Task: inverse folding
């Protein structure tokens, strides 16, 4: 391996095999999204001996110089160096409820509280290396916060300037959401018109801003590291850990654009190429949507080859994954089918129950979108798709601390003088 | 080392050397707080070869069985296993501003968004092992959230039940704060009367609830791991990392009760006992308060031997560290003096400026209390206490995402059709 990546790394289409170069293209002529070619790097890949966060897997990322011995590279310092390396923990208190041996990958323990930091860190580092003045995103949620933070904090050789962030938000964005983004001082534009069209418009090759949208090649590259960490944790687990095998039986993710789902699949493919994951150990990929907006699950149910855009049939508490026209929907569908998994959807009442159970029975505060995983696991176990002995990883994609419901009931009041007696009653 | 800790681990007073046993006592006859005796364990301690989070340092914690090979122990699964292991990153984009080589330890990347999870994880695991029915805390902020989460998620052999959480909050707690705590379904009591008195009342040996308050021995034990991680990261850093030595020159922490400050000092003492930190490499400890409530800084300025309780002279944005009667204040003062550091305070305008700069120039969203560190570093550099070449670690103790100001100005609006032109203007 060389110390420098080519200036125009190669892209390929998972479906038709056509190739292209980055950053000129992001999507294939066939209509499907492109991702980076990593065959050579994956062939030589071994579990790293050093490095933390997303840069632990620098050999598989399209950002050079990629050697762990180059700590002065963009992204190796600052907030981008704090992305990833999230905990993967067993959750035995939920096993009976989940119907399997449940593991939780807590992506809320990223700098801005969601898995988006992985892709943003890689995107910001690439843009800084390439000398791009701007990186952008079309989002008013976790991704917007993450891109703004990673552009603000990109550290490089000598602390040099990295790119600025441009965030395109809907015209009617709320003050709360805007505050979370604006604190990092990005350029924010409120776009009047069809916000849904922006995804495609911003991928125009002539755009002066490098948009790191939900399933673009740079973001998918960064988001691969969720699954790389999961698989490395299993592979390197102590003999004493009661693991059934050297990889989880299933990985369960919320799915929206299909970017994280695609990235997870790509990570598994690379580990197979590296010889680190045998075909028979390949985890099944299960993706979960909210029932009110489930175009990928619908295509799975119907046996379709492609995901079609749908009308959202109502609001959902899991609004952050309500994507009626997912740009990597078909790729996610393919990933689920080819790994022996599935795409399913769950209604809001089950999402809210799962969210509450993750807090009161496991101690994790997640956004509703993340709770679709536990709701989905329950359905899969009930349907016999998952077994009690299966090692199942649910990826909790984002924090719930940004949207707490303050309307709860007031708890019991007690006078200070009466407290000792009241404490005695507790153990009664 | 044995596989089981004694049922009543030993405590000692840092000041007078008296001993006692846990959990019967938490404070010394001399009035000062007690901490666990760890001399034997520290003598034998070496940097661990495995383990993550706070349990990586299990050999120095008062929770047994403490061998890393016992993954079925309480705390080794669930939310307690996700505490700690937070990123320590260089922040070159802030160096010029900070006047030193700045590192950030991002404690917001804990399960509930603050460093409190370290002590809560250890406290919940101890209580579960000891068969206690209840653990409690006196807090309506980060500590309350953390204790409730860790009690909810305590995992043990076979997923057995751990203790329940009791949270004592002020009578007039806001709905927002209550929601963050109540989601984990703890027992919450609103206490009418002098909330400040509760700290001492709940340490009564006869209390049927094990209170893991801000500076109790269990919490200090868990909170040692912040500094253990910092020192291990420096000690194990790649040769290529541009480190001046094998330990940071200074560690800068917000200080409130003095619990975290004391824990940091204890960690350094243990590493010295272990032979992993030479006397000449001992980091200086700097603790920062908000000027409106700074009893420890006042004692430092006045050259007093003890910290006296003060009147708070007004409100402060760093309300979470506004403790006018810090139970470990004198211990923190001693730690700063004995390590050659200092205790200082900073006014609200400097705290708010530091908070904004951490977001817009480094990409970290912290609560105001955490921003006192950068504000303090600036003052120390200006005063010549810190030098440009010093490696200085600022501990960002908690997330700012729970208290964003939604009152900002609306950004520029643009029609979708005009967007391409507007993007062109950006790079123009």
Result:
């Amino acid at each position: 391996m060389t110390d420098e990546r080519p200036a125009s790394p190669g892209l390929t289409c998972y479906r038709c095999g056509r190739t292209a170069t980055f950053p000129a293209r992001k999507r294939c002529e066939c209509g499907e999204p492109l991702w980076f070619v990593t065959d050579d790097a994956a062939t030589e890949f071994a579990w790293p001996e050093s490095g933390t966060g997303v840069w632990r897997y620098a050999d598989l990322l399209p950002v050079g110089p990629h050697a762990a011995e180059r700590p002065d590279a963009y992204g190796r310092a600052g907030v981008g160096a704090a992305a990833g390396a999230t905990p993967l923990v067993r959750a035995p208190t939920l096993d009976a409820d989940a119907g399997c041996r449940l593991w939780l990958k807590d992506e809320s323990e990223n700098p801005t509280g969601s898995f988006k930091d992985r892709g943003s860190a890689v995107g910001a580092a690439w843009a800084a290396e390439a000398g791009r003045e701007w990186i952008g995103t079309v989002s008013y949620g976790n991704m917007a916060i993450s891109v703004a933070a990673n552009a603000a904090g990109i550290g490089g050789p000598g602390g040099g300037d990295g790119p600025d962030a441009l965030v395109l938000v809907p015209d009617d964005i709320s003050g709360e959401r805007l505050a979370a983004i604006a604190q990092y001082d990005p350029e924010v534009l409120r776009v009047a018109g069809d916000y849904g069209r922006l995804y495609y418009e911003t991928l125009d090759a002539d755009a002066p801003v490098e948009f790191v949208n939900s399933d673009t090649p740079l973001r998918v590259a960064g988001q691969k590291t969720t699954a790389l960490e999961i698989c490395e944790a299993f592979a390197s687990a102590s003999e004493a850990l009661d693991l059934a095998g050297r990889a989880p039986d299933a990985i369960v993710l919320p799915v929206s654009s299909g970017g994280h789902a695609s990235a997870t699949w790509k990570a598994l493919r690379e580990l197979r190429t590296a010889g680190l994951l045998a075909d028979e150990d390949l985890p099944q990929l299960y993706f979960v949507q909210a029932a009110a907006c489930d175009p990928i699950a619908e295509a799975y149910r119907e046996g379709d080859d492609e995901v079609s855009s749908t009308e959202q049939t109502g609001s959902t508490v899991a609004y952050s994954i309500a994507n009626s026209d997912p740009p990597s929907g078909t790729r996610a569908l393919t990933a689920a089918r080819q790994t022996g998994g599935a795409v399913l959807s769950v209604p809001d009442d089950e999402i809210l129950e799962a969210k509450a159970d993750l807090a009161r029975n496991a101690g994790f505060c997640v956004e509703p979108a993340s709770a679709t995983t536990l709701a989905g696991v329950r359905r899969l176990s009930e349907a016999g798709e998952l077994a009690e002995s299966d090692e199942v990883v649910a990826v909790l994609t984002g924090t719930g601390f940004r949207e707490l419901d303050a309307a709860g009931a007031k708890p019991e009041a007690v006078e200070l003088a009466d407290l000792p007696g009241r404490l005695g009653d507790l153990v009664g």
The radius of gyration of chain A is 22 Å. Chain A touches chain B through 110 residues (CB under 8 Å). The longest helix of chain A spans residues 217-235.
